């Protein structure tokens, strides 16, 4: 059964986790590397497990794995074989599942929903690390995208992920390819989450209503939404999507700060307080899966869980 549907049958809102990279950095990890959080898989995988567990303790119903930038091509540039790369990709699921199972054994008596593990499928542009992650303009064929994504998807599902998080997708082409590729794995479910140019268009300029129309007939796409976007823009986008799909909607925006890809820095100030207020707009606009992306912490997720879990 669709794991998202299972949770939403028991709770009105499914709470996702927050930023992994932010917490890894706060634990002393240096992510200034093309592999980003996947670098920690090579150096200190135990800290990834601990971050997952902190989010579960904060009230998250779902952990998103450290596989966003874990790819065969990326690891190959570090001299790893295909077999070694696939083993590391699978390890991202094993770490999240282990954290979930430990948490559940310790706290199941006070929870009515067992959390799930969503394996992150980041965009092709994240591997390129050339700015196309923010535009969706890759200049590649559909087959090249298939060849890039298929082995990682297979490995993550073989490792026992409950579903796939096709996230931070800036490209309509890539969304179509991923949705079609999912059909090669019967019984698997995924959510599709886009980055935004504005409240009506994804990063490559495709209107959200076209994205919803494309994905509506894919039964294995369990939810549609947006992430890694400013809070107000994300709320607007959810409102647009609600008009064009009956699928559950998800939103996990940034903390309130804005990323500058030219300087690789965050501008402005984030606040868990404004995150709390903003979540009311997400819910009002139709979202039923909510969480945080870059620069959010367990504190952000704790506020969402306390505010929304168990409400109907």
UniProtKB/TrEMBL annotation:
Does the record carry Cell membrane as a key word?
Answer: no
Q: Which cofactor does it need?
A: Zn(2+)
What Gene3D superfamilies has UniProt attached to this entry? Homocysteine-binding-like domain
Pfam families according to UniProt:
S-methyl_trans
**UniProt keyword Cytoplasm present:** no
Q: Which UniProt keywords apply?
A: Metal-binding, Methyltransferase, Transferase, Zinc
Any GO molecular function: S-adenosylmethionine-homocysteine S-methyltransferase activity
Give the source species: Halobacillus litoralis
SUPFAM superfamilies given in the database record: Homocysteine S-methyltransferase
Give all residue intervals belonging to the Hcy-binding domain.
Answer: 2-308
Per UniProt, Zn(2+) binds at: 228, 293-294
The protein, known as: S-methylmethionine:homocysteine methyltransferase
Question: Which GO biological-process labels does this protein carry?
Answer: methionine biosynthetic process; methylation; S-methylmethionine cycle
Chain segments annotated as transmembrane = none
